[in-house]
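One such shown below:
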Amino acid sequence: MIKNLLLTGFLSFNDGKLDTNYFSCIIKYIISYQEVMMTLEKRFNKYLDRIEVSLIRQFDQSISDIPGMVKLTLGEPDFTTPDHVKEAAKSAIDANQSYYTGMSGLLALRQAAADFAKDKYNLTYNPDSEILVTIGATEALSASLIAILEAGDVVLLPAPAYPGYEPIVNLVGADIVEIDTRENDFRLTPEMLETAIIQQGEKLKAVLLNYPTNPTGITYSRQEIAALAEVLKKYDIFVISDEVYSELTYTGQQHVSIAEYLPNQTILINGLSKSHAMTGWRVGLVYAPEAFTAQIIKSHQYMVTAASTISQFAGVEALSVGKNDTLPMRQGYIKRRDYIIDKMSKLGFKIIKPSGAFYIFAKIPDSYPQDSFKFCQDFAYQQAVAIIPGVAFGKYGEGYIRLSYAASMEVIETAMARLKVFMESYEG
């Protein structure tokens, strides 16, 4: 608008009709415009100043233009969505299933989700009132956290941790307090948990668990989950459990949800992105007691109304006919994991063998500089391989790097060969 006003004034001048009043008005308008903009910029939600774009995404974008780049960065399966799931979506389109579902999602999908949870994890939920379909696990987390948190509340989070949790918590004026798990090979113990709970006192509103864990790949046995539950049940706090990697476990034992032990405290988060290679379909799930779900749906409905109808029909197929679709993927991930561990261990990296998810969280050898951001940046520019600096997962992640083995074996082999060259020549 200002550009057009100035152009108009310039044309008037060229015609020999310079109007000083016109230019005076323009200057006054510009000053007024700038003053309004400066004022409005200060009137955004004050909590936005506490959050930034994810360091993972920032780093990934910063090195994406390097020629010949191979990436072991994002947690996105290289497997394709199973064909029968895609066909279900196509059939839904052909049947003109393009209208809103109810806010909770298709009843058929909620029923399939209930059956899946019962069959796989021994969990019982009423599909009519205790399951909510969301736009991915991210929206499931957002809707749940917004529903329960108020300014001044505290959420406990075992760390290092996925960096997407803290911004959601901060946006409502609450705070994350991390529990440092490094001394126990990234495993949360009942003693660590209870100490942190007592320290936070009345401010504590929730404990946020994620397992199998991003970035460490750690998961927990039934005995460990039972022990954590014994602590949590003593306190009137929510347990938000992000178990989106539940189908990607490599222990030979089925995943154990803490909701089995604490059904009346737990908001369980899951989805289809990791289990069925459906990241772009954006199908998430909230499992919670009826009273909790009735509150969470309030935040959900005003953010998104409802999840994509076509994606939901695909989800019905995935959780019913395709309930075991993850099995061949799991075998592929184990092969990739073991290959990376073998190659990196020979180069001096300390690695706690992941028992789930699809990430390697490796300690940079002590003989090398421990600045993880610089290490990853140098690796990217010198060898055209992208991995994520550990500091992206909080202060307790410094000195580590995260590699995703959701990439193809060909990409992984190339990356490991380049890492060997890099480590043999790197001076920091």
Summary: The mean pLDDT is 92. The first helix runs from residue 2 to 14.
